[in-house]
Amino acid sequence: MESIILSVDVACATLAILVQLIIYPTLRHVNPEHFHDYHVWYTQRITWVVGPLMVAQVLGHAFLLVETPFLIEAAAALLVILTWVITGVKAVPIHARLSREGQDARMLQSLLHANKMRTLCWVGVVFLWIGM
Q: Tens digit of pLDDT for each residue in 58-101?
């Protein structure tokens, strides 16, 4: 079971890094006339990738906390919960606003910042595994 949870954690961290370095910066280069359609297309599809990973991750870490309630598992679970908070409080509202209002450099920068925090959390979870 631990290898499955680790695989999910690595997948989340890898996806977050790709989003941070490639996907979100690319949004700046989308033609403003096509931004709305592209952004809606992107968010609908990425949800099918990110959603199951995040659910699997939170369930996996809940399982670990119950099975082996040690400090390192609690720290990892806290980072996972923090990614959910950042996603719900920061990333989702920014995406909703981009879908409504269109391309905006400040919103894209805010999205990059929110994702940087998620990326650090997800990479932190992987580093905690290394320390286990």
A: 999 999 989 887 888 999 999 999 999 999 999 999 999 999 99
Write down the domain spans for the chain. Answer: 2-131
Q: Show the DSSP H helices in the chain as ranges.
A: 2-18, 24-27, 32-67, 71-86, 92-101, 105-131
Whole-model pTM? 0.90
Give me the residue label for tokens 């099975």: 67
Looking at residue 69, its pLDDT comes to 74
Tokens matching residue 48: 């099918």
Phi-psi region of 11 (alpha: psi -120 to 50; beta: other; left: phi over 0): alpha
Which residue, 4, 129, 117, 1, is CA-closest to 70? 129
Identify residue 85 by its one-letter amino acid code: V
Cα separation, 62 vs 58, in Å, equals: 6
Looking up tokens 């981009």 gives 98
Best CA proximity match to 110, nearest among 129, 91, 96, 123: 91
Q: Judge contact between 56 and 10, C-beta under 8 A.
A: no
Q: What is the DSSP secondary structure assignment for residue 30, as one 8-state letter?
A: S
